[in-house]
Amino acid sequence: MALEWIVAGIFGALIGAGEIVAQFRDEPDDALMTFPALGYMLFNALAAVLALAVIRVFGWNVGVQDPILAGWAQVVLAGFGAMALLRASFFNVRDGEKIITIGPSRFLDIVLVSVKDAVDRKRAEQRGIAVSQIMVQVDFNRAWQALPAYCFGLLQNLPQDEQDKFAKKIALLVNASMSERVKTLLLGLSLMNLVGEKVLATAVKNLGDDINRLSPTAPSPAP
User: Fold this and answer.
1) Does 89 fall in a domain?
2) Bridge partners of 138?
């Protein structure tokens, strides 16, 4: 049935999408809409279809006697098993301190790294424009404590270790020798990595004059 081949491809594409989402948690929907990410999902879909073809050639019915159920069992096996096969490694080679994997997983890792780099470059321009627009009126001295606290408060499941890493990064930024505008942009980018563009924009809007550099209220100086 043609539907079985389509479903197997969809399963494979979903696995590829999951890998992309895991790498770009701030705005996964934007990452998935880039051409490199779509190409990677297509690669995964084709791998699943090819796996189904191999399964059908060798007649693996995975122990199911009913022809219809066996067909769908093969679809599930191909859809979710293709990437497991591609993730396999035959053996490892040590090159000094570096361990090199020999096998299909080596090729897949190279492809995934290339996709991640391509997606990252594609989104860099969009993120640069977005953070510049969102943070245009933000005063760093007023925002470096209030804005992260409010963003983290909006989220329910941000891990504590991620918040601790962010706090250390901002502590270095506070005392860095750079202009306040650059600090503001870096603050926005760091927050965008954790909470996403939409949450950051909402937080800046809601805090309003409390972090606005044009507000007449005197800002609290950074230590």
Assistant:
1) yes
2) 212
Number of domains within the chain: 2
- Domain housing 203: 135-210
pTM of the predicted model as reported, rounded to 2 decimal places: 0.62
Task: Tell whether 121 is covered by a domain.
Answer: no
Inter-residue contact 180 to 141 (CB < 8 Å): yes
* Torsion region of 199: left, alpha or beta (phi above 0 gives left; psi -120 to 50 gives alpha): alpha
* Rounded alpha-carbon distances, angstroms, from residue 199 to 120, 192, 220: 20, 8, 24
**Which of 82, 115, 148 marks a domain boundary?**
115
Q: Does residue 37 lie in a domain region? A: yes
Residue 60: inside a domain, yes or no? yes
Q: Which residues, at least 6 apart from 29, have a Cβ–Cβ distance to it below 8 Å?
A: none
With H, G, I as helix, E, B as strand and everything else as coil, classify residue 94.
Answer: strand
Overall average pLDDT of the 144-162 stretch: 90
Instruction: Using CA atoms of 30, 33, 37, 41 in order, give the dihedral in degrees to the nearest 10.
Output: 120
pLDDT in tens, 76-86: 888 887 776 66
Rounded to 10 degrees, what is the CA torsion of 94, 95, 99, 104?
-90
